[in-house]
Amino acid sequence: MIENLLLSLESLRANKLRSFLTMLGIIIGIASVIAVISVGNAMTSSVTSQFAEMGINNVSLGLQMRSSDTGEDSGGEAKVPKDTDRISNEQIAAMTSRFPEIETVSLAEEAGRGKAKLGRKFSNVSLTGVNPGYAKTNKIKMTLGRYVSDTDVKGTRSVIVISDRSAKALYGSNEAAIGQTLIVYTDKAIKAFVVIGVYTYVETPGMGGSGAMTSEKDLETSGYIPVSTAKKDSPYKGFTSLTVVPRANIDPTVFTEKIGSYLSKQYEKNKNWESYAYNMKAELESSNKVLGTLSIALAAVAGIALVVGGIGVMNIMLVSVTERTHEIGIRKALGARDAHIRTQFVAEAIMLCVTGGLIGIATGVGLGMVGSRLLGAPFTFSPYVLAGSVLFSMFIGIFFGYYPANKAAKLNPIDALRHE
């Protein structure tokens, strides 16, 4: 066997250009398949990471308009739910008591946008009313001080947690901001808050907060105040949406159905509004399924190049058999069996395909890394793909090399010796 491999290697070296051109189809095929799979895996990993950041197990609850066949035609008045339609604090408390699976509930209420000013210094701030659970669902990291507490919410306190960007823009440092009175000028009012904490601002690509897209002067960050303080001047005391965080080891799909059914019953008699409940796990599974199917489809299309490459290998091996007919006759005359001849040519085909496969793997990994970087996704590569690529290259060599090898093995030695 080793002798056959050495003979195959010698034959490939004797025809370097022809061997490379023959391998080109295999190289392109393997490289394309690996690049597609690598980019597909990178996209799947990126999507999974993004969903995890948003809280894959969290359950979103809220209200939506009923379809026109069941809702009242009120001339557009039902587009904004009345306070009696909204999810009240009492409903939220009852729901929390009803379901021990709930770890925390996240509430948020937009409270206006404006400028926080201190002399000639200013910082753009978007006021958001929150409860303590909001920090968990949005992964807010405190730099200094504390976050909004239940006591702040119950006492409707005029306190605020600002970003480290705002703290440095207004006060020069995070430490200097704590305990200071912050004046925020919105379109509707001038509001004063005591700064109780500073959180770490995280730039989010694609959002208005991307440092690459927005200058420090125009950057707008959130200022978190108690949700009760945000609701103080609002005619609406209830909520149209909220997020529930289940405890660890709770199946989010089952829990979503349970809590969704519970809330739905409370809106059975409401003519304009109905409740909804969903979690992102189902969306993630659906997204990964689509990406997986797309990757397989693209890999299958790229795999056509492998078939074309295999046909090229068969073609060049047939040419090689014709060119080496006299050599085959001499070997048979010296006692070489059909199996020896067949093995030599199959080994040569395998050598061509495996060499092309290895070059294709290196090329595919390189393309995959470039593609992943362009998409902003982490590059991932499975060793199973590497092993599969090598084995598939060997299979292509055996499958497409067997017919020429068998043809060479069946040559009549006398006729072969006469061939010039």
Automatic annotation (TrEMBL):
Keywords of the record: Cell membrane, Membrane, Transmembrane, Transmembrane helix
GO MF entry, a single one: transmembrane transporter activity
Chain ranges passing through the membrane: 20-40, 296-321, 345-369, 381-403
Record's bilayer topology term: Multi-pass membrane protein
Keyword rRNA processing: no
Domain named MacB-like periplasmic core: residues: 19-258
Location of the ABC3 transporter permease C-terminal domain: 300-413
UniProt subcellular location: Cell membrane
CC annotations in GO: plasma membrane
InterPro entries, per the entry: ABC3_permease_C (IPR003838), MacB_PCD (IPR025857), Macrolide_Exporter_MacB (IPR050250)
Signal peptide from the UniProt entry: none
Main localization, broad class: membrane
Source organism superkingdom: Bacteria
PANTHER family listed in its UniProt record: ABC TRANSPORTER PERMEASE YTRF, MEMBRANE COMPONENT OF TRANSPORTER-RELATED
Assigned protein family: Belongs to the ABC-4 integral membrane protein family.
Protein name: FtsX-like permease family protein
Species: Saccharibacillus brassicae
Source species taxonomy: Bacteria, Bacillati, Bacillota, Bacilli, Bacillales
